[in-house]
Design a protein that fits this description.
- With about 625 residues, the protein is of the alpha/beta class.
- The chain contains 18 helices and 31 strands.
- Among the domains are: about 140 residues, Rossmann fold; about 120 residues, 2-Layer Sandwich (GMP Synthetase, Chain A, domain 3), CATH 3.30.300.30.
- Helices cover about 30% and strands about 25% of the residues.
- A seven-stranded mixed β-sheet has the order 5-4-17-16-18-19-20, sandwiched between helices. A five-stranded parallel β-sheet has the order 7-6-8-11-12, with helices on both faces. A four-stranded antiparallel β-sheet has the order 23-24-25-26.
- α10 links the parallel β16 and β17.
- The longest helix has 17 residues.
- It is globular and about 70 Å long.
- The two termini are about 45 Å apart.
- Bound molecules: propionyl Coenzyme A.
- Propionyl Coenzyme A binds next to β9, α10 and α12.
- It comes from Emcibacter nanhaiensis.
- One of its GO terms (molecular function) is propionate-CoA ligase activity.
């Protein structure tokens, strides 16, 4: 049996023994005796265990003599700077900031919202929260004020941490006005906003604001607070099918156990090696594999403030690998497609020494075989697609660089990760056979590290994830498992779309668009895009008196979605139509429109109200250049 099969067999034989052994990799104040606790459909791992997350992430490496080793390397082509922080430095920064939090009245269990660009202080802030048992909630900088306000209202933080600006190619994003707008919109008002002033654009501070350095100045360094394993470490909001984001809760003990296992067995990392997740701390990849997992196992993590292209060229990733001797790079396929478009022959790679690189991992959206094979030929290392979600917190399907790599099948996300009991079910909850597409579901319990619930919303958790197939967690994805056990993800079964690895709700965009006084009704669908994977396209039916203004209303709608949701929503295309295709009961046929726009075969539902509307939609699409 291979290492992978051994792991699989031990997990199947006794999940509790398997995860108890994995938990032994952490430093516990009280090692758990209750490994898995069940109450109805709610499962908790390591319920009576106690530990400090921050001790496991930082202090224990210092105690073990790794204090001088680089813990965090900030590499910013946006500012032209590189700065390395050792574990000693990290301990100093984090414990002083944690002390400042305590001085400002933040206690264990209090929430702290972090709305910041990719700067070291954002990482210090996350770690300072976990040092004192406060619960951070990081909001991605590409979200606009209204989205931030929704998260502030749900998380009800004591503090909000932000920066004067973020840096995007060609523009400076002033965060402070966005924060001010969010605080105007939110019902909950935090005690204080702490603002990191960046020299590229300084913010005007007002009453209720503190400047970062002054906030930390003179604070007594805080010690690690020991928490229950089941206490929340963070809340990370993810798009739901409506405009209301879901607060995914991550607990301490289960998460750290799972991350520690994954770093060794999936990514094949050892202490002292450099690991680079080229994502953003606002996403779960950033939480798990920029911040928590690499530090937990004593690696050096890279915090990259830049893009795959344009900062300054398509060799940017290869330069970072050489400079920091990166062993594993984790990125989204959209980044590879962007590099491939600018540098199809991969000539920039030849300028750099990439001999340190062992594996490239891809996630965030389905990896198209073309990009995966292109990267494999270019880099000469295994390129591994793997699949997981904000909800799972760590990989659920993948391959095992540490336990023993299995053959890569381009197009498939890989094999199930021990802990995740995958099944493909039809709508009657029946198991489908190999190769048949159905709902991808995971038999409960989920392994440690996955969301135990939604923030203050257990009913919402059950409704969203546990009711479709009783006894199973619904992933929201359709897919199939082949005869060799490889799992392929085909599409979402709901109205979420994945734009450049950003999970977005078409429902939220529809909410913004339908608020326009001239819009009678609308539908937003995700249409295939060669670089971003998908792009939203909006179909709008305008009131009769507005039809002549369709072009200018389209521009207003694009601007509104950008202003209300954020630039990542990337809505660039609005098509005014006379009517939308619907079933007789009034349900808009978004799936059918999507298939038409993508040039895929489809069968109109038998319940369609007026099939002639499909011909009209086909004409509109064709006028706009779809299918591409
Ligand atoms: C496995 C579990 C998961 O799935 S977790 C999610 C994993 N997903 C990821 O890691 C995301 C991967 N994608 C990326 O990193 C980016 O899309 C890459 C590939 C780097 C391309 O970036 P970019 O060229 O900016 O395109 P984009 O589509 O991301 O951005 C669209 C517009 O939004 C803006 N934006 C982006 N980030 C921010 C930010 N932090 N603050 C402010 N604005 C931001 C971009 O500038 C862009 O704006 P514009 O429309 O060009 O004006």
């Amino acid at each position: 049996m291979s290492g992978y099969e051994n792991h699989l067999a031990s997990w199947r034989a006794s999940p509790e023994t398997f995860w108890k052994q994995a938990a032994e990799q952490l430093d516990w104040d009280i090692f758990p005796t209750r490994i898995l606790q069940q109450n109805d459909d709610i499962y908790r791992w390591f319920a009576d265990g106690r530990l400090s997350a921050c001790y496991n992430l930082i202090d224990r490496h210092v105690d073990a003599g790794r204090g001088e080793q680089a813990a965090l390397v900030y590499d910013s082509p946006m500012t032209g700077s590189v700065k390395s922080y050792s574990y000693n430095d990290l301990l100093d920064e984090v414990s002083r900031l944690a002390g400042a939090f305590q001085r400002a009245g933040v206690e264990q269990g209090d929430r702290v919202v972090i709305y910041m660009p990719m700067v070291p202080e954002a990482v210090f802030a996350m770690l300072a929260c976990c040092r004192i048992g406060a619960v951070h909630s990081v909001v991605f900088g590409g979200f606009a004020a209204r989205e931030l306000a929704k998260r502030i209202d749900d998380a009800t933080p004591k503090l909000v941490l932000s920066a004067s600006c973020g840096l995007e190619p060609g523009r400076v994003v002033a965060y402070k006005p966005l924060l001010e707008e969010a605080l105007d919109l939110s019902t909950h008002k935090p005690d204080l906003s702490v603002i990191l002033q960046r020299p590229e654009h300084e913010a005007d501070l007002q009453d209720g604001d503190a400047e970062w350095q002054e906030f930390v100045e003179g604070a007594e360094p805080a010690d690690c607070v020991v928490t229950k394993a089941t206490d929340p470490l963070y809340v990370l909001y993810t798009s739901g099918t409506t405009g209301v984001p879901k607060g995914v809760v991550r607990d301490v003990g289960g998460y750290l156990t799972a991350l520690s296992w994954s770093m060794k067995q999936i990514y094949g990392m050892a202490p002292g090696e450099a690991y680079w997740a080229a994502s953003d701390i606002g996403w779960v990849v950033g939480h798990s594999y920029i911040v928590y997992a690499p530090l937990l196992v004593g690696c050096t993590t890279i915090l990259y403030e830049g893009k795959p292209i344009g900062t300054p060229d398509p060799g940017a990733f290869w330069r970072v690998i050489e400079d920091h001797k990166v062993k594993v790079l984790f990125t989204a396929p959209t980044a590879l497609r962007a590099i491939k478009k600018e540098d199809p022959t991969g000539s920039y790679k030849d300028k750099y020494d990439l001999s340190s690189l062992r594996h490239l991992f891809l996630a965030g959206e389905r990896a198209d075989p073309d990009s995966l094979i292109w990267a494999h030929k270019l880099l000469g290392v295994p390129v591994i697609d793997h699949w997981w979600q904000t909800e799972t917190g760590w990989p659920a399907i993948g391959n095992f660089a540490g336990a023993g790599l299995k053959p890569v099948k381009p197009g498939s996300a890989g094999l199930l990760v021990p802990g995740y009991d995958f099944h493909v079910l039809n709508e009657d909850h029946e198991e489908l056979s190999a190769g048949q597409i159905g709902d991808l579901a995971i038999k409960l319990p989920l392994p440690p590290g996955c969301l135990p619930t939604l923030w203050h919303n257990e009913e919402g958790f059950k409704k969203s994830y546990l009711t479709q197939h009783p006894g199973y967690y619904s992933t929201g994805d359709a897919g199939f498992i082949d005869e060799d056990g490889y799992i392929s993800i085909m599409s979402r079964t709901d109205d979420l779309i994945n734009v450049a690895g950003h999970r977005l709700s078409t429902g939220a965009m529809e909410e913004v668009i339908s608020n326009h006084p001239k819009v009678a009704e609308c539908a937003v669908i995700g249409v295939n895009d060669a670089i971003k994977g998908a792009l939203p396209v909006a179909f709008v039916v305008l009131f009769a008196d507005a039809e002549e203004d369709a072009a200018s209303i389209g521009k207003e709608l694009i601007a509104s979605v950008r202003h209300e949701i954020g630039p990542v929503a990337a809505l660039k295309h609005v098509i005014a139509v006379a009517r939308l295709p619907k079933t007789r009961s009034g349900k808009i046929l978004r799936g059918t429109m999507r298939s038409m726009a993508n040039g895929e075969e489809f069968t109109p539902p038998a319940t369609i109200d007026d099939p002639a509307i499909l011909d009209e939609i086909r004409d509109y699409l064709s006028n706009e250049g779809y299918p591409q």
